[in-house]
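User:
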Amino acid sequence: MADKIPITVALHGFAEEREIIMQSAFAEADKWPTPWQITKQLEQARVVIVYLPSEEAYGELDKLGRDLPNAEVVALSAKIPPQAKWHLERQVTGKVSIVKFSQLVLKIARSLKQTVNEDAEAKSGLLEPVINDPIPAADLISVADDDFEQEFNDFQPFFTTLDTLLESKPHEKRKRFNES
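Assistant: Predicted structure:
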C-alpha cells in the first residue's frame, strides 16, 4: 500500500499562545485517516487557518486568496465572513468547539480528496479514449456501495479516537459536550 500524502496546514495571524493551542488540536493528526501535517511555510500549505480577531481583518482572506490560489483558506472568527469558503467559529471565550473543528477537518479532507480524484480523472481522460458503453444499473449500485464502504472505513478510526476521548472525560463534561 502506498503511503498517504499528508494534507499540509499552516496557521496564520495567531498570537503565540493561541497558536500553541491550535497546534495541540493537530497533535494526533499524523494518525488520522488522511494525515495532516503542520508547516510554518504558508506557500507549502494546502490548508491555511487564519485567525481573524474582528470584522476589520476580513480583508486578510482576500489577500490570502490572491497570494495562495491553490490553498483552502479557513477563517477562524466569531462571525462568518461573506467571502469565506471555510469557517471555524471562535466562541466568545476564544475557544473552538472540538465537534465543529472535527467536522471541518473531515469536510476539507473529503473536498481535497474529491478534487484530487477529479484531477486524476481529467488527466486520464486526456490520455485514454472515451468508451460510451452503458453501465448496467446493478453495477452502478455496487460501485456506490463500495464508495460508501470505503469512505466509512476512512473515517472510522477518527470517530473511534473521538469516542475514546469522550469516554475518558468525567460525566459532567461529556454531558455538556453532547448538549451543544
